[in-house]
Amino acid sequence: xxxxxxxxxxxxxxxxxxxxxxxxxxxxxxxxxxxxxxxxxxxxxxxxxxxxxxxxxxxxxxxxxxxxxxxxxxxxxxxxxxxxxxxxxxxxxxxxxxxxxxxxxxxxxxxxxxxxxxxxxxxxxxxxxxxxxxxxxxxxxxxxxxxxxxxxxxxxxxxxxxxxxxxxxxxxxxxxxxxxxxxxxxxxxxxxxxxxxxxxxxxxxxxxxxxxxxxxxxxxxxxxxxxxxxxxxxxxxxxxxxxxxxxxxxxxxxxxxxxxxxxxxxxxxxxxxxxxxxxxxxxxxxxxxxxxxxxxxxxxxxxxxxxxxxxxxxxxxxxxxxxxxxxxxxxxxxxxxxxxxxxxxxxxxxxxxxxxxxxxxxxxxxxxxxxxxxxxxxxxxxxxxxxxxxxxxxxxxxxxxxxxxxxxxxxxxxxxxxxxxxxxxxxxxxxxxxxxxxxxxxxxxxxxxxxxxxxxxxxxxxxxxxxxxxxxxxxxxxxxxxxxxxxxxxxxxxxxxx
Length: 498
Prior knowledge:
The protein is 5% helix and 44% strand. By secondary structure, the protein is mainly β.
């Protein structure tokens, strides 16, 4: 292959966008035969001219009725420069956006904007408020949550630290000297952060923005020895439920170690006290309330051990204060059986309208499939199935599914395969559990010149685990030449390429 041909192929492939997130919103809460929805999706792609990754937003109009779904695209994608977080309010009438911009003086600043359907109604310069440091936008700690009343907006930010200075620095005024006393002599003090992909994040703190006044308040009552994140409003719309990670013995390396000690907490804001809702010596994450706020599910792993181990799904009943195991760890399941939950995040909204079923994606041997979990019967059902004729050949060709959002019995998802770039799809849940899928976007570049298959291997040694491999080969290659092999065996934490 010539260099020019290789460059052209790379440029073409780099233009294929990848889905970052997606959400379903609806302004109308009344029951009607035909109901309108708006699907907003965020995409990322490489811009080779600017030498950076850019993000864009797309919107689709969805009309549902008893028969299924009608879809249409609204306009063209728009670049969302500097956007870190976006959240639509429960009523669908307001949208909050956290944005990072560089001002005329070259300073990088964060802003919180609140929009209604016609205009921006609130803009807050986070640094100017002088209550917190930078807002966390990562999946580990970050959140952006509307209260049910839509009068408050909760997020996680770096704790405000005294400005460090030298003992020998010259102060410009008496006020500066008084303000800097706490940080004097600390300019070289090491402040431990949370490591890879969480660099410069040291002390997360819960914050609340008052929509009416524009003021930001730091929530008090969180113990100093834990770092809060993944916060939700409690059913009373005043207290807070959050995950807390232990600061000791060290912070470094949390992003790829979901087995670090953490607990589920209930913060009573007025009393400034916390109650532990999960058991000790565990690693918990991803709390998700159901629609009527009566049940709270979360993922739980044993503290320590393999990093990406099988997870359990637990449910806490807010009314009875009882906890039960919904999905247990599977002990050496057979090939056709449910292998257990292998995932690091649950969709932010994953509950069906009956408050009994949740929908999420999970690794199922060599594929990532969508599963339905009934919290009452504790039955796990595979909704998608690569290579199966049960869901139709059009949908069984995809081996990697991701649930983006679930609302009003609509499932927004992304599907892909090694030779099929991501597609945005939406499915409607029907009584009995059937799902009718529809594409929302047009087909991107088709990689038709190669195919893939899943190979099964069973070692001869007694009591060994069978395993699978994904093999990609050229399509319709009639030559008798031996093809070179690129192998990517996964070993512990990294990939080896040979």
